[in-house]
Amino acid sequence: MKKILRDYRDFRRNREFRDVPKWHREIMEKVLPFTMAGPERTLATICAVEYVVRNSVPGAVVECGVWQGGQMMAAALTLLQLGESREIILFDTFSGMTAPTPADRDLDGADARPVFEQLSKKEVGDRWCEAGIEEVHRNLASTGYPMEFVRLVQGPVEETLPDHAPAQISCLRLDTDWYESTLHELEHLYPRVASLGVVIVDDYGHWQGARQATDEYLATNGIPALMHRIDYTGRQFVKR
């Protein structure tokens, strides 16, 4: 939470984004208190949604791992700005992170499991990346986006995908951090991403499991991808 507040204060003071359109900055300021992604990755989400709308890339906007919903709030506000209505689908347990495996280490090699085990002992409401489904629904509704276009799917992605996946996706944002969940998402959602659609992997840089799953999936399926660096951890590419 301290990092989120710091990101928000730094963004308001920082002139680094003075080249960014005013309405982009206004959306960033509105949603930064509801996301751990920080300004650069939030701007990437806004730009990705703007890109798929302006280029008529068909499909829903989908995020796996949403915490308080800040990134999809940014997507909703962008769609409102552009006068566009698309389905927004949020996949999450809405009860915190699923258990990591030995593959899930940070960039420096620290095992995620001890941290997960420690935080799992906390009371409901204080666990790793925990935000309830009602809270996330309220946050999305606060944007003014028509909620008939918003769908929240509760449960581990290994249990909810592919059954609740849309037929087509224009923008896919993956933020469940771990190897197994990220690979499962790619296997079931990437084939549904439209040509010229955008894929964002939030923790490709920080979590080795997310990187391994992404690299394995792309290599196994012979998919060329220019992994554009958003910031220290975020990466994005456009599907051919």
From TrEMBL:
Keyword terms of this UniProt record: Methyltransferase, Transferase
GO biological process terms, semicolon-separated: methylation
InterPro entries linked: SAM-dependent_MTases_sf, TylF_MeTrfase
GO molecular function: methyltransferase activity
Protein name: Macrocin O-methyltransferase
